[in-house]
Design a protein that fits this description.
The protein is mostly beta strands. The chain contains no helices and eleven strands.
Length: about 130
């Protein structure tokens, strides 16, 4: 079992930045791929970014590429999402997720992840 707790959400003006953190506890953090997803009101949950166990491989949704950066610190069992140049359409609840490394080829899909955090709200005002 892996427990995930997100933090760092809030209200920011368009063009601003936020850094989300997701602290993990339970099983060995470095064994898991980590992902960030988001869900806006009345929309389906969508993939944002994912990172391999060591951080050597990373993937992004086209909508955030060049603006968001995912990273992880295995010693601190934490994954981060640095969000720059925020837009109103980035407004959503952001979730971090953990999954087995065997699911890496599917990292853009929610089914690749077994454990989810409770989410943190990000609101971007235009």
């Amino acid at each position: 079992q892996v427990q995930l707790i997100e933090s760092g959400g809030g209200l920011v003006q368009a063009g601003g930045s936020l850094r989300l953190s997701c602290a993990a506890s339970g099983r060995t953090f470095s064994n898991y791929i980590m992902g960030w997803f988001r869900q806006a009101p009345e929309k389906e949950r969508e993939f944002v970014a994912a990172i391999w166990r060591s951080g050597i491989s990373i993937g992004y949704a086209d909508s955030v590429k060049g603006r968001f950066t995912i990273s992880r610190d295995n010693a601190k069992t934490t994954v981060y999402l640095q969000m720059n140049s925020l837009k109103a359409e980035d407004t959503a609840v952001y979730y971090c997720a953990a999954g087995p490394d065997t699911k890496w080829p599917m990292y853009r899909g929610a089914r690749a992840y077994d454990y989810w955090g409770q989410g943190t709200q990000v609101t971007v005002s235009s």
